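Intended use. Records like the one below are meant for learning the mapping from a protein sequence to its folded structure. Do not use them to infer anything beyond what is encoded.
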Amino acid sequence: MAQNLRAKIPEADTLLIHDQNRETARKFKEASIAAAGAGAEGKGKGKEIEVAESSREVAAKSEVVVTVLPEPSHVKSVFGNILQPRLSPVPNSASDRLFIDCSTIDPTSSTDIANAVHSSSSGVFVDAPMSGGVVGARAATLTFMLGCPSHNGNGKLVSRVTPILQHMGKKVVHLGESGMGLAGKLANNYLLAISNIATAEAMNLGVRLGLDPAQLADLINGSSGQCWSSSINNPIKGVSPGAPAEKDFEGGFSVGLMRKDLGLAIKAARESGAELELAKRAEEVYEHVEDGEKGKDFSVVYRWLEARNSRVSTWRSR
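Structure written out for the chain above:
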């Protein structure tokens, strides 16, 4: 995402980055400089890049701040550091400071943070979680789900946010007021959690019945069973180029993050009175998968099923 953002921002802009892992930030800067052919300080062809010591420094120096964090507690902690003490106005800018949070957290926490930003007059805050996975982040094909008022004091907020998000993705959907982007994300990721398991089961079933995995995937993806997990993130090696299955399920959306998102969706369903019939079993599946495949992409559910096949076959043969 950051690479795509830097590639598409205006030449005169500076990209200021911060990561809790300083080595990650350093490597990103070095790779970006090398790709741009800039000098050692990140200068030479516009679009300078700097590494900040803290999230507070990023916010103090920036007109637009994009945050992406794993858990609600992380987002609250970062914005606690940013907002205290009160930020000064953006240097040399007539616009309010814009905070775009792309984290997947619960809508209530996000709305609380939005209220804190607005009440402190530190800027404007929008929630903009994304969908498309690691593949979409690299290819700038993400879909962003936007929650924010349609207008703010300085004009149309949606029209200000959309071009920024389009640097990192291809589609921006405004779903309503603060927190509504996250409401959409949780509904989407609940469906993803279920369809990922169903894809693994369907592929496992077909292969066990003697079908070729590539032919089976081609059939599914040209039929009514097609979904993102079957076409873009297929769990069998050799079916979806670039999918985590090609690299031993490394480098994707981890089982732990899917468990977190599923838990947030279940919590939101409980609070809203929505019935989720498949949620409990899906939670159990991801819990069992993470026990043996911690850190792997969540499509590794397929390998977990394969292992269960072997145990069942062994038991039946006795």
